[in-house]
């Protein structure tokens, strides 16, 4: 079976890990059923693997401690009109009662 070249660095030394392809040279991971994305296109997935886009409404799936505060963001909290950003915390949003905040996409699910 011929494995595809890495879409990021064009390396031929890719390998398959379950449903994902991995490039050992640049550490890029992608799925075969995904369309090839340009490097400037940000793809963010929620905890269930659904693709998120700007303006989506998501629900928090785990109680989250808020840094710098004694309060906790409870499970089931709905967050409307998210904005996707680069970085570790890739969701920028405003939460009623908390204000502006950044979240990790692995702790939310798309509604």
TrEMBL record:
Matches recorded under Gene3D superfamilies: 2.20.25.10, SH3 Domains (2.30.30.40)
Location of the Protein YjdM C-terminal domain: 44-111
Cross-referenced NCBIfam families: phnA
Organism: Mangrovibacter phragmitis
Domain Protein YjdM N-terminal: start-end pairs: 2-30
Protein family membership: Belongs to the YjdM family.
SUPFAM superfamilies (alphabetical): Prokaryotic SH3-related domain, Zinc beta-ribbon
Identification of the protein by name: Protein YjdM
């Amino acid at each position: 079976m011929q494995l595809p070249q890495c879409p990021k660095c064009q390396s031929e030394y890719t390998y398959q890990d379950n449903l994902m392809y991995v490039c050992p040279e640049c550490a890029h991971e992608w799925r075969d059923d995904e369309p090839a994305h340009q490097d400037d296109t940000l793809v963010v997935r929620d905890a269930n693997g659904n693709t998120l886009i700007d303006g989506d409404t998501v629900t928090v799936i785990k109680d989250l401690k808020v840094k710098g505060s004694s309060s906790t963001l409870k499970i089931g909290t709905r967050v409307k009109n998210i904005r996707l950003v680069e970085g570790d915390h890739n969701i920028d949003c405003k939460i009623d009662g908390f204000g502006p905040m950044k979240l990790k996409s692995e702790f939310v699910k798309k509604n």
